[in-house]
Amino acid sequence: MDVIFENLPLYWEGFLRTLFLSVVSGIFALILGTLLAAARVSPVAALRGFSTVYVEVLRNTPLTIAFFFAAVVLPRIGVKFEQFEIAAIIALSTYTAAFIAEAVRSGVNSVPVGQAEAARSIGMKFGQVLSLIILPQALRTVIPPLINILIALVKNSSVAGAFFVLELFGYGRQLANANGDAVITVLLGTAFFYLLLTVPLGILANTVERKVAIAR
Amino acid sequence: MTTHVPGDALVSLNAVNKHYGQLHVLKDINLQVRKGEVVVVIGPSGSGKSTLCRAINRLETIEGGTISIDGKVLPEEGKELAQLRADVGMVFQSFNLFAHKTILENVTLGPIKVKGASKAAAEKDAMALLERVGVGHQAPKLPAQLSGGQQQRVAIARALAMKPKVMLFDEPTSALDPEMINEVLDVMVQLAKEGMTMIVVTHEMGFARKAADRVVFMADGQIVEDATPEEFFTNPKSDRAKDFLSKLLTH
Question: Which residues are bridge partners to B170 per DSSP?
């Protein structure tokens, strides 16, 4: 156990960086994912096509490839960053957005078609129907799957450790290398800090789900 | 058979055609509705009457012919269509109140977001409308907390809040328990008396007798008869209508 307490500052720093990566990527992914879902149900064929291709490609390739593109390929074609964190955020948010888009789309499909018809019949335009009537109802029904995706995002952020970003898992690996006699303890400590992020998310999902449920 | 009304038709359908796959649901429909007229559309299920009603504000697209509201041909998409729809009130069989909004918000949303009314003005109008249809005290509740009859009356108020030129009713009482049908019909009769132009698809023959200026009888996608209620119910001309009416009266 000593190895954990002695290295608490390192764990803490890793924890904060993981938190930072997760929160920032989570926000970008939620915005991008919702826009992709909106594009997917829009009357414009080109938007639907783009959204479909985006989701299918990102969802069906490993996260490592997204990281590789962001960290290695982007700088080669001229997109340079000061820190690898930015590459990590790009990779995590573009990858996670594909899953969020699918969840939101399933939520949109769960809203009865009469809701959109009623909104259109009082003269709302497509954007208003979507933002005022459909999405507010759709998002409420998909909170549990959305939180699942965010939990996966927190854990996926550990891949950043392999791309020069010292987050929780990156520090965990450093510590494990430095303390060959206490690898198990070090990894248990790492796992504990991940749980500190993900367990409250699960609890939040339950609470929010109960609070915002819509009676029909 | 259609009666052609010269001049001031508010809603005008000319040679309207529509297919669902192989099924020809609207066959060369011609119908003119004047301002202030109440037209009740009846007919057996599958006769195309709901499709007709929904086509008038383009919730159903049509393949041939034209539909015009107050002289303007229905645009196909976009902003112009939205503007025209704002002038056409629609009441659905399944109410379709916005499930995540309160009763008051259901009625104020259109005036605020579509017409740019101020919140205070929209709420004042909405409360007056809700009082008029008898559900004023339900204003802060959510739709699911109201009975079907109450929800449908709110839906009527929501449509009226846009100050429409014409109101469409697509089987407004078909999803209601029998004891709630009258409270909705009463509101509709009142509306008819006040001079609202109405196109009502319904199975309520009592309403047709009481409030309609004309009864349009549809079968197999065609308008078979177009007559006054008196004429239609006492002296139907077509066999199709006679058959339909005889089936109603046996119960």
Answer: B201
| Cβ–Cβ pairs < 8 A, chains A and B | 75
Q: Does A133 touch chain B (CB under 8 A)?
A: yes
Q: Do B109 and A137 touch (CB under 8 A)?
A: no
User: Using the 8-state DSSP alphabet, how is residue B134 labeled?
Assistant: T
Domain carrying residue A90 = 2-212
Contact (CB<8Å) B110/A215: no
φ/ψ of B209, rounded to 5, equals: -65, -40
CATH code of the domain containing A41: 1.10.3720.10
Asked if B90's CB is within 8 angstroms of A125's CB, the reply is: no
Look at residue B31 and give its three-state secondary structure.
Answer: strand
Residues of chain A positioned with their CB less than 8 A from the CB of B100: 136-137, 140, 214
pLDDT by residue for chain A (216 residues), tens digit each?
Answer: 788 888 888 889 999 999 999 999 999 999 999 999 999 999 899 999 999 999 999 999 999 999 999 988 888 888 888 788 899 999 999 999 999 999 999 999 999 999 999 999 999 999 999 999 999 999 988 988 999 999 999 999 999 888 878 888 888 888 888 888 888 998 999 999 999 999 998 898 888 888 877 776
pTM for the full model? 0.85
The answer to whether the Cβ–Cβ distance between A123 and B162 falls below 8 Å is yes
Q: What is the ipTM of this complex?
A: 0.90
**Nearest-CA distance B219 → chain A (Å):** 26
Distance CA A156, CA A154 (A): 6
Q: How many whole angstroms separate alpha carbon A3 and alpha carbon A183?
A: 9
| Structural domain count of chain A | 1
